[in-house]
Design brief:
The complex is a heterodimer. Chain A is built from no helices and 11 strands. By secondary structure, chain A is mainly β. Chain A is globular, with a radius of gyration of 14 Å. Classes of the chains: A mainly beta, B mainly beta.
């Protein structure tokens, strides 16, 4: 089975840096996704990590350690529009390569 | 990349009726999935839509309640059968293109 844990809520200040952690346990692993979801909208793809290390994409970076079952999403130079839910999701390598989502972290960016 | 559209975008239905949601992808994709997202919660996988064969359902979801079709590599339907208020949710179609998994805009279903 799969289990994904991430904090329920976080608050940060505009212009700051925030790190959202995700730990997972899975019987098979074929990549980890991060999605952003604003209220009332569909999830938007942010990143995909399948190998260990840091992937940087503009203000957003994602890190993966497969041996530790750990990932984080780093958001730099926070903007008010970054207030959203951030979903960590793990794709397995059996049973159709399905992707299972964590409960999501609701990020509040304050001025 | 893949662009996914869904119809209808929202509907209000009476208890006991059924609704079929359509999902169209603008390119051929290998994997298609259906998720449900209830208010304030994360996404729950309902099933994997298999092209040319029966869908693979997750625990807690059955074919009689959520029949799925996938006649080709770009189209799938999900039917919510014999609806009850507990089925009120957002239903999301998803497809994998390369390493990325994309989502449709969702269908917001309200059952009265």
């Amino acid at each position: 089975g799969q289990n994904i844990d991430q904090p329920t809520e976080m608050t940060a200040t505009e212009g700051a840096i925030v790190q959202i952690n995700c730990t997972y346990q899975t019987s098979g692993f074929n990549g980890l996704f991060w999605y952003q979801q604003h209220a009332g909208e569909a999830p938007t793809f942010l990143s995909y990590n399948v190998l260990d290390g840091l992937e940087e994409k503009g203000r957003f970076s994602s890190f993966l350690s497969r041996s530790k079952g750990y990932s984080y999403l780093l958001l730099k130079e926070l903007q008010m529009k970054d207030s959203a839910s951030y979903l960590c999701a793990v794709r397995g390598n059996t049973g159709g390569f399905k992707t299972i989502f964590g409960a999501g972290t609701r990020l509040f960016v304050k001025a | 990349s893949a662009v996914i559209s869904q119809k209808p975008s929202r509907d209000i239905c009476q208890r006991g009726t059924s609704l079929t949601i359509q999902c169209q992808v603008d390119s051929q994709v290998t994997m298609m999935f259906w998720y449900r997202q209830q208010p304030g919660q994360s996404l729950t996988l309902i099933a994997t839509a298999n092209q040319g064969s029966e869908a693979t359902y997750e625990s807690g979801f059955v074919i009689d309640k959520f029949p799925i079709s996938r006649p080709n590599l770009t189209f799938s339907t999900l039917t919510v059968s014999n609806m009850s208020p507990e089925d009120s949710s957002i239903y999301l179609c998803s497809a994998t293109s390369g390493d990325t998994q994309y989502f449709g805009p969702g269908t917001r279903l309200t059952v009265l």
